[in-house]
Amino acid sequence: MKQKQMKGVCLLIAGILFLLLFFSFSGIEKTKLLDTDGRNFEKAEVTNVISGNLSNSGSGKQTVELKLLSGDHKGKIIQATSSQSYLFGAKCKKGMKVIAIINESKGELLASVYSVNRGPMVWLMAAVFVAIVVAVGGRKGISSILSLVFTMLCIFFIFLPMIYKGISPILAAVLVVAFTTVVTMCMVDGITKKSVAAMLGTIIGVVFSGAFALIFGQVTSITGYNVSDIENLVYVGEMTDIKIGELLFAGILIASLGAVMDVGMSIASTLNELKEQNPQMMLKELFQSGMNVGRDMMGTMTNTLILAFTGGSINTLVFIFAYNYEYQQVINMYSVGIEIMQGLSSSLGVIMAVPVTSWIAAFLYSKNQK
């Protein structure tokens, strides 16, 4: 069978499997956690600023006039309040597009400004990103975008419904990681020795990452219940079948996937190129070359992951530095321990993907060689 045909068959099977999983976990009747009857978020335009007492920093409260641009009351002009803060509301000006919270009760409308309508700009920036990826990567760039979209669909329409129905988040994460890895590699390179080596190296590397995270949590007494917003999560867990305690570790599996996949494909691709340039290279030589390339990648990729998790906890680091926390206080903080666990686990996944992918690729490329 030709390579294009194999790729097409693989994607067809993946599409059928995705649809089967999608319909298996669709139609979930969600437990009502909050009464939102009569409340809607609608697009609106500020037609007039009636009054306001904003401070120099922009915080305060305004009374504005809005023209609704969506919903059952589209075109209607209503009065609303806008409580400007760092997280909610907006500093309204005439002509500004905003999102309004509309509460309807007994035919009466009560409205408040939720935020600036930033949706169109978010999609515009996403479109710019896609255009740059396609311009630089060509067909490979298109495949990368499609694989990214597929991964996000799997997370939102397979992973989340699975854990909502009570399936272990760790098991669901492993299944989604394996599924998306196979489809991504197939989209980028088809079914080849290179893609198979990258697939297996990625999946095994991510499993190592999850296993290390579980061991780290056990020996340091860190569980999935030591995260921020745990009170809200516990309430969700009590009202649904979601296993809250496993969410932290499932998140680590998903977070490490991108970096591990990058290493897996890079090593498999490098060894494939070496084999094509020098068909006489044996398994041992190919494996050693993969290890040499992988060692160079380990330093940069590990730094990338550690810095990514550090950047995500920069607010905590600022507090630690500004308030001059003591060492014993810092090292025993749950938030610090979780960030260290995430960084080390993801980095270990990258490190373990190097020898695994190198050996699998070297074995496959030299399989028919005496």
Task: Explain how this protein is built.
Strands 1-2-3-5-4 form a five-stranded mixed beta barrel. Helices cover 64% and strands 13% of the residues. The protein folds into two domains: 39-117, OB fold (Dihydrolipoamide Acetyltransferase, E2P) (Beta Barrel); 140-365, no CATH class. It is globular and about 80 Å long. It has helices spanning 3-25, 119-164, 169-189, 193-220, 230-239, 247-277, 283-312, 314-322, 327-331, 334-365; strands spanning 39-52, 60-68, 77-84, 97-105, 108-116. It is built from ten helices and five strands. Helix 6 (247-277) packs parallel to helix 10. By secondary structure, it is of the alpha+beta class. The model has no long low-confidence stretch (mean pLDDT 86). Keywords: Membrane, Transmembrane, Transmembrane helix. The chain crosses the membrane at residues 121-138, 145-164, 170-188, 200-227, 247-271, 305-323, 343-365.
Question: How many beta strands in the DSSP annotation?
Answer: 5
How many DSSP helices? Answer: 10
Major sheet characteristics: 5 strands, mixed, barrel
Task: Give the SSE order as H and E letters.
Answer: HEEEEEHHHHHHHHH
User: What percent of residues are in strands?
Assistant: 5-15%
Could you tell me the radius of gyration in angstroms?
26 Å
Distance between the termini: 25 Å
In what order do the strands lie side by side in the largest sheet?
1-2-3-5-4
SS-based class: alpha+beta
